Amino acid sequence: MSEPNPEPSSRLRLRITPHAETALRSGHPWLYAEAIREQNRPGEAGELAVIYDQKNRFLGLGLFDPGSPIRARLLYVGKPRPLDAEWWQGHLQEAVDRRRGLFGEDTNGYRLCNGESDGWPGLVLDRYATTLVLKLYTAAWLPHLNDLVAHINEVVPNDRIVLRLSRNVPPAAEAVDGTVISGAPLRERVEFLENGITFEADVLQGQKTGFFLDQRENRAQVEALSRGREVLNAFSFSGGFSLYAARGGATSVTDLDISLHALESAQRNRALNRSHPAIRACRHEMVQADVFDWLRDAPPRQFDLVILDPPSLARREAQRTEALGAYGRLVRHGIARLRKGGILVAASCSAHVSAAEFFSTVRRTARASRRQFQELRTKGHPPDHPASIPEAEYLKCIYLRMD
Fold it and tell me: How many structural domains comprise the chain?
C-alpha cells in the first residue's frame, strides 16, 4: 500500500478533465471513467494511480478499479509524497480519533471509519466490543487486504477482524465474505453495548456489518418519547427501537416484521436485557407479516407511538419515484394507526431519496390526513457516520405529533 517512486515509467497515470479536476480539488473523492482524458496503459484493480490535472501537474493518488464506473477513488490530493506504512496508520488513526469522546463506557458498538467521509473510499470499519468488522465496497481494496489488517491491528486493539464484502465485490481465494481474517475464530454472534443496552450482532452473515449502528441517536430519542405509550415498531428487525422504548417506560411494544429470523433476533435481544426492570415490565408482542399489508388490512388497532424504519426502498435512481410513493403509503397508514396525541417516527435509509424529498413526502401526507400535527424534529447522520459528500448522505428521520 505504499506509493511507488516518484516517476517510474511503469506507473499508471491518469490525466483528467477540467471539471473532474475542480471536483477533486474541492474534496470529492470519486473519479469517473468518462472524466479520464488520457491513460498510459490498462490498470489492475487496486493499483495506485497517479492523477494529473489538465496542465499535466500532479494532483493526487487514487485506488484504481477498472470494473467500476468510479474508475479511481482518491486517497490523497496535494503535493507528491510517499504513502508508506506511517502514512496509512496515521490516516486510520485520524479517523479513530474523530470518535474520541463521543461514547462512554456504556457504548462499545460504533463506526470507526466511514468510507469516503473519513478519507477511506469504499471501506468502513465498525467496532462491536472486541470484534472489528471491515466491509469493502470496491474490489480495489482486495490486493491490499494483508496491509489493511496490519494497519488496523496496529491502531485498534481487538480480538478479531471479520471481513464483509459488498455484493458488487467478487470473493477471492483470500477474501470471502463473512470470514475471520485476523485473530480468534468466531462461530456465533457477538454481543456489544449501546447506551447500556446489550445487543447481539450477526457480524458473519447479518445485514450491513451485523447491526444498524447508524440509528443509535434515533433509538435514544424514541426512549425519551415512550413513557406510558403503546408502541408499534414496524420493520422492527432485531428490536432495537423496541428495547429503547421499553426502557423508556412504554407500557407495550409490538415488533412487526416479515422476517421470522429478525423477530427471533429481537426476542434474543430482549432476553439479553431481561434484568432491566422497565424492559421486563413492558408487554411485548411479535407479529410476523408484511408491514404494508398489515398496516392497511389488519383489524383496527391504534398506538401512541409508531416507528416506520423500512429497509432501502430505492436501491437505484430509477426506483426513486416508486420509493417516494411507497413512503407516502407507509406514512398514511402509520398515521391512521395513531391515537390523538400520538407520535409518528418515520425514517429513510434510501440514498437515492434526498432528505428534502422524504421530509416533503411525510409532511404532505400528514396534511392530507386532515389531522393537525406538530413537527417535533428532523435528524440525519450520527457523528460516527459523517457524510462529507452528497452521495454519502442517506439517513434521515422525522418526528410528528398528530392531534
Answer: 3
